[in-house]
Design goal:
By secondary structure, the protein is of the alpha+beta class. It has five helices and nine strands; from the N terminus they run βαβαααβββββββα.
Length: about 170
């Protein structure tokens, strides 16, 4: 079974502009041994049991409810908002979401292999730094540093959950 790996953002990643602006970005990927569409990947990601737990928390703590039907609509490009995010940019094989506070970005990308028999799934995020009053000094808060280990594990688990859902 394939494992989730951490790597560099692809040069064409919609998330790359945030890295250039000083945001903290990450990129995880896994190779799925079947061909899937970007829409299937988005739907599997946001309807996985693990992500449903995050949706439950967002419903009750942030008052940002969502359901599987809305995730399907997001995957098909039929809605611009989903749970705590809005679509910032979308291409045929990438989706970039912005959280409702404007502090983070989430990114999904799928790339079909040259032989058409497998798909590389990417997941990444960006945390936008706080700027001082002059706008020049980027800072990441204590909470960001405290949660970075959890974020790494959770990101890998989310991608793996989507991978397993797509294998079914």
């Amino acid at each position: 079974m394939n494992t989730v790996q951490q790597g560099e953002l692809p040069t064409d990643a919609l998330l790359a502009k945030y890295k250039l602006q000083g945001a903290r970005t990450d990129c995880y990927f896994i190779d799925l041994p079947v061909k899937v569409t970007q829409a299937d990947y988005i739907e599997a990601f946001y309807t996985s049991n693990l992500f449903k737990l995050e949706r439950f928390i967002l419903t009750h703590l942030a008052r940002r409810p969502s359901n599987d039907e809305q995730a399907t609509q997001l995957s098909r490009g039929k809605v611009d908002h989903f749970a705590a995010w809005s679509v910032e940019q979308q291409t045929p094989n990438q989706l970039l979401l912005c959280d409702y506070l404007g502090k983070t970005r989430s990114w999904l990308k799928s790339v079909e292999s040259e032989n058409g028999k497998s798909t590389r799934l990417y997941f990444g995020s960006a945390v936008i730094p706080k700027r001082d009053s002059t706008g020049s000094d980027a800072k990441f808060g204590v909470l960001f540093n405290a949660l970075s280990g959890f974020h790494h594990l959770y990101s890998k688990a989310l991608l793996k959950a989507a991978y397993l859902r797509l294998l079914r």
